[in-house]
């Protein structure tokens, strides 16, 4: 047992740190803008730099563009990115559909789609949830009917993150209406420019436009865009969800967010003393830091097990539950820290730069961050569903 | 001991309920708060017409002879409809200062304007460095002939964009956090030297940052005794807390009803999600949090007339209860509504945001817990 | 709306207060011994004094011995008893079987049993739970078979509080084995001296002997000891459980216990300062006091509704849940307050008076009180069951 | 970075497991703790024989060359069986003081007695007024010729009834809570002037109150430098915390296993209670609390060799985690076992009681939270 880095790992850390310092776009620095406030090009800038460097998919097999890093190196990579507050890469291509394509796709599909994912020439979005499906993903009702060498797709998807920018959508559709819930589902790749697709924004309570409804009306999708076998889509969907959860603990970014919280609480005054020096606030932050320390080791233990061929497995649900609880709590305490200025509503879209934002620089938007983060215990399989998974798969209940 | 409402009080509630049911549905409210104005002066006029703005004033002041319970009833119903119009600031707070601390002349001059709906007020008390401490003031009022000159900065003055008049707390003597030396003034927002910058708040209201630069007021602007304003300020903010508690219970009531309703109809895995025991117990906890909040709201509203220590405990206790309950009920209402709960379209997120801000107003759970434990 | 007392009520309070001061037995003063540590006679002393005064069953109808007090007077009575830390009366006769007998019993039974309940000449115990039944009371398996003018009872009861002293047991038995769970149950009164009854102590983890197993082997019970109709016992059982819950909030006693906690926390030092002056402990006590204030009003609201003929109803489940949570929390903080001396094990039975009990007087036994109070969220319908009741009966889920 | 155990460590665990499975079943333990002695010296001899008491000592000190990880493994397994014998006090604490602070002579004279099982130690550090503050000492040691004279009172000295030797903290200079001026002494329990009163603890152990009245010790009784003992005391209590954390995870593991097993077999309303979603989620929360505790236990045991600040954070953090998790897991294990969980007969209550006391030992959640937030 050992929690320290080897000299090689330390050298790697320095290399990574230097690369980020030299290459992360100046204009993006400062962190913590939500994607709802960023332009499409800003969102992609860092991706494109990493693509050039060959570091855009450390978690992929080397043959498809992976870096071949060890688990520890990937841990360091994540840590360093969080430390520098780089804007996170979009997961839809890199962590979601990419691995599905290289694992279950045919050679044609790999050739056709992987390069665009790596280069970010193709922007992907996720067509999983439907109005009414929620946590019960398998209840989806979007239909795809084979007609010659096309499927005709009708239905709708919702909570589709950043679909407003998307070139492609990976989509679960029902191809056998008579099969039981989880059977009869297929995994289709759909060009967002196909006629019959309409994207309607959903504004969330914090004022952001991150998610959308996508309406599909007689959308023609070539059969060669089917991944794997027809009616076996649920297998690929579950594989994807398993991948999605593994990064969700967000430990490194939460560490950074706590640093920021502490700085704010140092600047805020209670009776002339820094808020951070008050017993009560200090304790709340300490509890949060301890929770996060524990989660960090829990994640490392999971990664260690993974690197030995075990897992990720249902234990990953712990990472989702605890990770999102911590993220939510950080935003909650940050909002608390700014006191009366928590009232300030910062514009989330169409920022003109002329808005009057009172109070210290760090204050505007913190309440909205808190409101926004409530989504994390709902999406990606709600935390209740994660409890069900552990109860069933780990405890055997 | 008696927990029932009088006939007049029940009538008052019915009046408010039918007005709001008619004129204050969620979609209307959503549109209104997005306009440049952000509120409806004509709604305010209706409040006046129906006597709501007169409810808690005694008959000799031209009111209807009610008090805290009337405020409670109105604010609870306002909470259920997320009413943004500044009843709290104008009637409860400014009205309270005039009633409790104002001279006969001030009362006669100013209360009719409140009751008639002509004057809207805001309460400029918080300062950036002061957080929730009502005595932590750098705004000063210097004696200047028979009047005063006010200099300073007030933060997050809720409802100020709509107001004509301000209640302003300022230091006439003493050091920054002394309990002594604080005075309360009436200032016209249009007075020379008052400048405001307005902005929207996350709960659909408006606020201003206000700078006072050599603002001259007369001797008649002072409410109560010079330098002895803090006990009055504490009393009135406790009255505001009592009213906010009622507003919060209104919000929670709606959230709980909406959540139970949603869980009865929304199906997942082939059954209404309200059949899942974990969600059932969650809703029971939400229900209990609401009931306990109602209890503390009754208690604070019934104890506003007691001595300082008892009133403080009741107000701080109520604020802690609604702060904790509001957070829990709000978060869980969103959680149980799933993605829908996150949207701007549904009312759930708006109640949640308002409850969150109520916790901040006049000091959050931490602040009030400390205040409670320090009260004699 | 009004929370203050009328002059008449204040006079009543003074009368009650004076009566308690003059009549509560000197040797019992000081409060908070658990019943496991008291002799049978000590437990009954206060009861017998109140019986003489005519105040032993304020909640009964006047015709059966009640005082005719208003709800507010009963509230004052409870408050004053808690204030003086009088030892609570046993509920088994006064609050449980007594009301069942005067509500559902025949004239004979009333004449035969009510006087002994009032005078405490009869000590009652409750034969409800069985090994294996737990919260699912209706699953009971103790059988009663009619033979001539007797029932022959076989089976066993458990968690029978203070059965070691009991003269009588009120008992749920299955008289129709073919009926569905809640039907076919009857309500029998059993003389504990009947041959075939064995009482075996259950020692709880705090070292107390409060509860017992009661074995019933061919126990002959005369048919005149059946309450109401055969096979209708569930109705009476539910009535009894409803009554049981209404007093369970324990507000007045919890107030007193918080007073005691605060005194302990004033005496305990942290770096030379009273623990009660530390920010963290003061806040925890404040939270508890606020919870209790809220519960007090909630109970008053329930009583007010009751006095108007509504309720008690399922809202009483809130009183059980919050009341027991608060009681548990008080013992938890009291244990915390004494610091290292929480380790001390005080004897719970067979006290010789010669045991060495280190630390301040208030310390020995506080951990055991905490352990003991864990039972309160289990018995009387577990708090999970109370949640189910509210979900179903109040929320309609 | 590596979270795997060596072959030797796995072997050690297997050894402990099979010994305890064989000799330390719950019923045997229950009988033993009710005897007058309260422990089994013959079990201690077996520990010695199997090399457990030698595990964390270096080979040059006659040990097996292990360290914190070995303590962790042993204490976790001891936690699973509620072992009462004083491994913590003798091997971890006294052994730790000698290893980290003892002179070569002290080590050579005393460690063999620990390893061989001949000497049992206890740690007399807490005082009634001091609560959890290791520096809050009124016990004094006055220079007396080449040696010292000790006067004072120590509270709740766990395992002392079984011990021959004591580690005693005392003030050689400075004021009551000064960090400087604290020294650590070895005192024979049989020395003149040492008097003890023994009593049972709620978790089935024994403790003593100890009075020191003009107890004379030689210069060789001092461990480390006079007046500079506090950093050493802090380091060793952190090592004790690391070991206690492991013990706590052992207790939680057993409680979780027992609870899941019970809920799978126990039926209510015709189904195993483990089918009720509320209980399922409760058990998931218990499982997560356990996993997070294991993580913090690994962390503190891996960080004992780091600088003071980092070690303090790891130890305080672990103590907070196991304090909170232990309380939750213990309470819920009792709750889910229903009435059975309340009995002395079932092991559940005993794990719960031990977990409760572990929170008190060396400072509870509140104390350690403060310590964590004050660590640089």
UniProtKB/TrEMBL annotation, chains A, C:
Segments forming a coiled coil: none
Keyword entries, A-Z: FAD, Flavoprotein, Oxidoreductase
Boundaries of every Acyl-CoA oxidase/dehydrogenase middle domain copy: 125-219
Domain spans labelled Acyl-CoA dehydrogenase/oxidase C-terminal: 231-394
Listed transmembrane segments: none
Cofactor: FAD
UniProt record similarity statement: Belongs to the acyl-CoA dehydrogenase family.
The protein's name in its UniProt record: Acyl-CoA dehydrogenase domain protein
Lineage per the UniProt record: Bacteria, Pseudomonadati, Pseudomonadota, Alphaproteobacteria, Hyphomicrobiales
From TrEMBL, chains B, D:
Annotated ranges, domain Acyl-CoA dehydrogenase/oxidase N-terminal: 6-118
Domain Acyl-CoA dehydrogenase/oxidase C-terminal residues, every copy: 227-370
Entry keyword set: FAD, Flavoprotein, Oxidoreductase
Superkingdom of origin organism: Bacteria
SUPFAM superfamilies on file: Acyl-CoA dehydrogenase C-terminal domain-like, Acyl-CoA dehydrogenase NM domain-like
Needed cofactors: FAD
GO molecular function term, any single one: acyl-CoA dehydrogenase activity
UniProt-listed Pfam families: Acyl-CoA_dh_1, Acyl-CoA_dh_M, Acyl-CoA_dh_N
Domain Acyl-CoA oxidase/dehydrogenase middle, first and last residues per copy: 122-215
Family as reported in the entry's similarity comment: Belongs to the acyl-CoA dehydrogenase family.
The protein, known as: Acyl-CoA dehydrogenase domain protein
Record organism: Parvibaculum lavamentivorans (strain DS-1 / DSM 13023 / NCIMB 13966)
């Amino acid at each position: 047992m050992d929690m320290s880095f080897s000299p090689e790992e330390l050298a790697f850390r320095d290399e990574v740190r230097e690369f980020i310092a030299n290459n992360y776009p100046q204009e993006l620095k400062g962190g913590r803008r939500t994607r709802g406030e960023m332009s499409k090009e800003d969102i992609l800038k860092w991706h494109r730099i990493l693509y050039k460097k060959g570091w855009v998919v450390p978690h992929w097999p080397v043959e498809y563009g992976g870096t071949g890093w060890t688990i520890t190196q990937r841990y360091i990579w994540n840590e360093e990115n969080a430390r520098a507050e780089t804007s996170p890469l979009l997961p839809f291509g890199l962590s979601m559909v990419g691995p599905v394509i290289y694992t279950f796709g045919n050679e044609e599909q790999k050739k056709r789609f992987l390069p665009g994912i790596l280069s970010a020439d193709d922007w992907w979005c996720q067509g999983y949830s439907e109005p009414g499906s929620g946590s019960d993903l398998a209840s989806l009702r979007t239909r795809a009917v084979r007609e010659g060498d096309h499927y005709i797709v009708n239905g709708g998807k919702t909570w589709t993150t950043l679909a407003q920018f998307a070139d492609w959508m990976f989509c679960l559709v029902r191809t056998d209406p008579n099969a039981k819930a989880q059977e009869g589902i297929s995994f289709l790749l759909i060009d967002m420019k196909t006629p019959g697709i309409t994207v309607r924004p959903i504004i969330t309570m914090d004022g952001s436009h991150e998610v959308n409804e996508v309406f599909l009306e007689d959308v023609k999708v070539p059969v060669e865009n089917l991944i794997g076998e027809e009616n076996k889509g649920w297998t690929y969907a579950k594989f994807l969800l398993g991948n999605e959860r593994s990064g969700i603990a967000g430990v490194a970014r939460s560490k950074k967010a706590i640093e920021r919280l502490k700085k704010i609480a140092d600047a805020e005054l209670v009776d002339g003393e820094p808020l951070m020096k008050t017993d009560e606030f200090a304790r709340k932050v300490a509890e949060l830091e301890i929770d996060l320390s524990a989660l960090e080791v829990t994640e490392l233990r999971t990664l260690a097990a993974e690197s030995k061929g075990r897992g990720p497995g249902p234990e990953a649900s712990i990472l989702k539950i605890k990770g999102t609880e911590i993220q939510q709590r950080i935003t909650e305490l940050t909002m608390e820290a700014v006191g009366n200025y928590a009232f300030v509503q910062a514009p989330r879209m169409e920022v003109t730069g002329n808005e009057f934002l009172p109070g210290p620089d760090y204050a505007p938007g913190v309440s909205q961050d808190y409101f926004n983060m409530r989504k994390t215990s709902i999406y990606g399989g709600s935390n209740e569903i994660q409890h069900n998974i552990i109860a069933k798969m780990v405890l055997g209940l | 001991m008696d927990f029932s409402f009088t006939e007049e009080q029940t009538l008052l509630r019915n009046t408010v309920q039918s007005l709001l049911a008619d004129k204050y549905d969620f979609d209307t409210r959503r549109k209104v708060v997005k306009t440049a104005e952000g509120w409806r002066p004509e709604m305010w006029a209706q409040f006046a017409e129906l006597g709501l703005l007169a409810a808690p004033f005694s008959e000799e002041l031209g009111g209807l002879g009610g008090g805290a319970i009337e405020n409670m009833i109105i604010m609870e119903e306002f909470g259920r409809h997320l009413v943004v119009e500044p009843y709290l600031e104008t009637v409860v707070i400014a009205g309270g200062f005039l009633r409790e601390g104002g001279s006969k002349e001030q009362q006669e001059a100013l209360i009719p304007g409140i009751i008639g709906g002509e004057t809207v007020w805001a309460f400029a008390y918080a300062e950036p460095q002061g957080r929730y401490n009502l005595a932590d003031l750098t705004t000063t009022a210097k004696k200047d002939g028979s009047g005063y000159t006010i200099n300073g900065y007030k933060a997050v003055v809720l409802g100020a964009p709509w107001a004509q008049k301000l209640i302003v707390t300022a230091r006439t003597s003493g050091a920054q956090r002394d309990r002594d030396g604080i005075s309360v003034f009436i200032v016209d927002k249009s007075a020379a030297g008052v400048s405001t910058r307005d902005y929207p708040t996350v709960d659909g209201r408006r606020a201003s940052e206000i700078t006072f630069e050599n603002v001259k007021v007369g001797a008649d602007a002072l409410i109560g005794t010079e330098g002895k304003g803090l006990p009055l300020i504490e009393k009135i903010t406790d009255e505001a807390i009592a009213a906010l508690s009622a507003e919060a219970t209104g919000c929670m009531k709606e959230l709980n009803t909406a959540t139970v309703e949603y869980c009865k109809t929304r199906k997942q895995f082939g059954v209404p999600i309200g059949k899942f025991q974990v969600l059932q117990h969650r809703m029971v906890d939400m229900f209990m949090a609401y009931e306990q909040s109602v209890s503390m709201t009754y208690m604070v509203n019934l104890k506003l007339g007691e001595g300082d220590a008892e009133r403080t405990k009741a107000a701080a206790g109520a604020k802690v209860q609604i702060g904790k309950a509001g957070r829990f009920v709000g978060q869980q209402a969103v959680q149980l509504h799933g993605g829908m709960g996150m949207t701007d379209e549904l009312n759930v997120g708006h109640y949640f945001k308002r409850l969150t801000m109520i916790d901040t107003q006049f000091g959050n759970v931490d602040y009030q817990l400390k205040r409670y434990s320090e009260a004699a």
